[in-house]
Amino acid sequence: SKKLTTFLCLQAAAGILCYVGAYVFITYDDYDHFFEDVYTLIPAVIIIAVGTLLFIIGLIGCCATIRESRCGLATFVIILLLVFITEVVVVVLGYIYRAKVEDEVDHSIRKVYNGYNGTNPDAASRAIDYVQRQLRCCGIHNYSDWENTVWFKQTKNNSVPLSCCKAALSNCTGSLTRPMDLYSEGCEALVVKKLQEIMMYVIWAALAFAAIQLLGMLCACIVLCRRSRDPAYELLITGGTYA
Known about the structure:
This is Tetraspanin-3. This protein is mainly alpha-helical. The protein is built from six helices and no strands.
């Protein structure tokens, strides 16, 4: 029963790790115009690889534990140790890139806003509208930032994109003469917060499942120690008996 429980824990950990990595990829796709450093995806790539490897390790460990193969269990422990070290690396990288988020967003967000084209929106323009609606924000620091964009100067209608309008209002035109209809908070701080939250998901997932790896290694070590202390014990096979 304990062997089955350990196996199920490892498989569940593998699935959740892959889910967390996939979530980071999907969410990053919504904010990638504000965050140019693709190396921030390295923790997500590693955690998906770890999740896939953990699934295979779970199968190997289950078979080795059931058969109580000393060689198989030793291999299982060594591989789990390597995975544990990898997850520690993920945590370190997560903290490094989490600290870089603010500088990256600050470096790129103004360029993205200046490239906005509301009449024929490209990918960057769609990203701005998505972020403003999703995070309920407007402009970089506030809605007045739109006055310095090329799009605002070209339209000459003294209004901001409709994505700045509060969701509850149906008659909002984005006019700066009615600032109470617009989201008052800027997007930069909220984008930084969102991206840092994504990094924290990776960090917490890696920490939580590193604990599961320790449990797996502990169970395997217990079985190995039992084998070492009882040399007369032989594996029971079909048609066989104990020595």
